[in-house]
Amino acid sequence: ETRVITNPDGSWSTEEVRVTWVDVSEDGKVITQTWESGFMVISSTVGYTESHAVHVVAFDAAGNETESEPVRFYII
C-alpha cells in the first residue's frame, strides 16, 4: 500500500507500507484472515444467506491498520 502524506504547507510525500495480514469481516464478524505468507483461515461458523456487508482491514507489522468501506452483496 502507498500512503500519501499531506504536510501543513501543502506539499506531500508518499511512503510504502507493507501489509502483514488482512481480516475480511461480514456483518461485523471476522470470517477470514490472510497473512503475508499466503496462509488463510476461513470461518465455517457463519451462514451465507440473504444479504451481507463485507469489509477488509489490513495490518502492517507495527499494528497500524486501514479499513475498506463495506460492500453489500446478496445471495440469490
Question: How does this structure look, described?
Answer:
There is one protein chain. It contains no helices and eight strands. A hairpin with a 4-residue loop joins strand 4 and strand 5 (40-42). The chain has one domain (20-74). With 76 residues, it is mainly beta. The model has no long low-confidence stretch (mean pLDDT 73). It is 0% helix and 59% strand. The strands form two sheets. Strands 3, 4, 5, 6, 7 and 8 form a six-stranded antiparallel β-sheet that branches. A two-stranded antiparallel ribbon has the order 1-2.
What are the key terms here?
about 80 residues; two-stranded antiparallel ribbon; about 60% strand
